[in-house]
Amino acid sequence: MEAERDPIEEIHQAIVQFTRSTRTQSNDMYQGLSFVAFGVLSYVDSAASPHAKDLADVYGLDKSTVSRQLAELEAQGLLLRVPAAHLPRAQLLKLTPKGRRRLAVTRARQQEGLRRLFGEWAEEDVAVFGRLLARFVSESGRSSGLPELPPASSRPPHTRRKG
């Protein structure tokens, strides 16, 4: 009989394996977007009145890095910076229709991949895993000192999964 492994060791090994796997598949997972670009578009889509400073705070990046990423997304026609009426020097970030479509297609493809992966799991197992993973991510984010991202359920209805 095989000795039981330490659960923390198993979790650590699974995280390392998952990270390695997602890095090798990232171009497919993000439809040609970088991981950072996908994160920026997702944040802009889910946050109320997002600003560049919000992105820097949430992702722990310096303003120049955020500015370069925003400029790239603007050049690709995925994002706009628009004047904020209540703050004269501030700019709100908005997805363009092209950016919204690109994000929706990317999310749909990712979710379809997850449906395939969990296809043979019992519904209850998927639900439990989802709750535990969300808890793990939330608690690990709090320990990092970074603010939490808006939950997917706060996204406008057009970006939430239907049915």
TrEMBL record:
SMART domains: HTH_MARR
Domain HTH marR-type: 8-138
Region (Disordered): 140-163
PROSITE patterns: HTH_MARR_2
The protein's name in its UniProt record: MarR family winged helix-turn-helix transcriptional regulator
Protein species of origin: Streptomyces prunicolor
